[in-house]
Every structure is written in structure tokens, then in C-alpha cells.
Amino acid sequence: MSALPRVLTVAGSDSGGGAGIQADLKTMLALGVHGMSVVTAVTAQNSVGVQGAWELPVEAVRAQYRSVVGDIGVQAVKTGMLASAELVETVAELIAGTDAPAVVDPVGVSKHGDALLAVSALDSVRTKLLPAATVATPNLDEVAQLTGVRVESEPDLRRAAAAVLEYGPRWVLIKGGHLPGEAVDLLTDGSEEHWLRAPRHDNRHTHGTGCTLASAIASELAKGRSVPEAVTTAKEYVTGAIAAGFPLGAGIGPVDHGWMTRPGGPAA
């Protein structure tokens, strides 16, 4: 048997299982790749919010990364919660030295509005992490946090993309899910543009959407797809996962990472 494509997530743990490395690994399994993880932080988290977060020592993060990459190897890397400037810079150095595409999800706040990135780390994201990215996937809040550009309508997505690209990622996917109307995202490398549209599903259970999308992109890149192909396929997967999101606990439930294998799904 040949080995499955291998994807490494470098992110925080979500004890509620809806986002973070739990969402990443579920996504990778659903999309047919072998998922591996470098845990950067542990959170006490559920459907109503984040009650606590503890980052791991830089030495532990570096050791996990080198252990996996040195022995098993990777075809793509995805980054998520990197709480401090020191962690951001360490991970940026590691992925810059890895011969594999990197999907950077510049996680700033949780779905519930809880801060997951120190303000002091923003400059490290701009100057160290984004230049190492094959694809950066900020949402509109993260765009504003990183660039100061506030997106109020669809035409503003171009301006947001240009501002992020100035920091050096090869491609940027500006996620317009917080805008009214259909869910529209803009993928661009500064010359090529791809507008990705999907119907908006009336479902509040969307915890883990950003983690899931970035992991899906990394999974498709690991299979050898081009960036536009990988992002298009990932968008289709996450749209189905959002439509199938389900209630869990007293707050916002997760998207359904296994929707494709549920009764009535495409694999049914």
C-alpha cells in the first residue's frame, strides 16, 4: 500500500472538539489524507466560549515539529492558533525551512470573541509568518487586525487582499463570510483573481469554520492540487459542513466534518 498524503497542523487544542487541532484532524480524515499535529496551546473551551488558554513552551513546539517532519515528512503544513510572538516566530522559521506548501490561518479571536493571539504578536505575524505562507486565509476581523483595512462590502475585498499580500504570502484568501448576502471569498496572488461563491446557510452552528477551511486547503494541496483547485474544493467541503452543523451544548455548535459520509451525503 502506498502512503497517504501527509498533512501537519500546528495549532491549539479545542477541548470541545469543534475547532483547533480536533477540527483539523477530522477534516484531514474526511478528505483522505493522514493528519498529524503539533500542539501549540491547550484551551478550556466549549460551545459558549474559551474559559482558559495555556501555551506550550517553544521547545515543546519545536520538538514536536522536528519529530514529525524529520521522520514521517509532510506534503503540506497548516498553522492555526499561535498565541505569542515567540511561538509565531518559531513556527514561521520551521515552516520556512520545510519543503512543503504552508496554509496560514492567522487566528486572532475565537468564534465567541475570545482573544487567541497577543497584540504583541501581530507584528511577528506580519513580518515572519505571512511571508512564509503559500496561502493566508484571514477572515474580515483578522484583516482589520493585521492591516487596518475594514471590509464593509464585496468591492472592499480587493483592497483587503492587496493589503495582506504586501506582507508576502504567495496567495491570500479573504473570507467574506461576515458580509451580508451569499458567502463570497476572494482568492488572489495579486494578478490572478478567483471569486468563490456559495449559498449562505441559515445555521448558527458554525464553530470551527476557519480551521476546517484552512485544513481542507492544506489537504488538497498535499494531494498535488494547484492553489485555486485546492481552495475551490475546500470551499465546497466547508460549505457542506456548515449546512450540516449541529447543536452541541448551550451555545454555538460545530460544523459537521463528517457530513460527506452521513446518510444523504455525497458518499452515501
List the helices and strands and how they pair.
Blueprint: E1 6-14, H1 20-30, E2 34-46, E3 49-55, H2 58-71, E4 76-79, H3 85-96, E5 102-104, H4 122-129, E6 135-136, H5 140-147, H6 156-165, E7 171-175, E8 183-188, E9 193-198, H7 209-222, H8 227-243
Parallel strand pairs: 1-2, 1-4, 4-5, 5-6, 6-7
Antiparallel strand pairs: 2-3, 7-8, 8-9
Helix pairs in contact: 1-7, 2-3, 3-4, 7-8
Structural write-up:
35% of the residues lie in helices and 21% in strands. It has eight helices and nine strands. It has helices at 20-30, 58-71, 85-96, 122-129, 140-147, 156-165, 209-222, 227-243; strands at 6-14, 34-46, 49-55, 76-79, 102-104, 135-136, 171-175, 183-188, 193-198. A nine-stranded mixed sheet has the order 3-2-1-4-5-6-7-8-9, with helices on both faces. Helix 1 (20-30) packs across helix 7, helix 3 (85-96) runs parallel beside helix 4 and helix 7 (209-222) runs antiparallel to helix 8. It starts with 5 loop residues before the first strand and ends in a 25-residue tail after the last helix.
Helix content: 25-40%
Q: In angstroms, what separates the terminal alpha carbons?
A: 25 Å
The number of distinct β-strands equals 9
Percentage of β-strand residues = 15-25%
Q: What coarse outline follows from CA principal-axis ratios?
A: globular
The SSE order reads EHEEHEHEHEHHEEEHH
Secondary structural class: alpha/beta
Largest sheet: 9 strands, mixed
List low-confidence stretches: none
Mean pLDDT: 94
Rounded Rg: 17 Å
How many distinct helices?
8
**In order across it, which strands form the biggest sheet?**
3-2-1-4-5-6-7-8-9
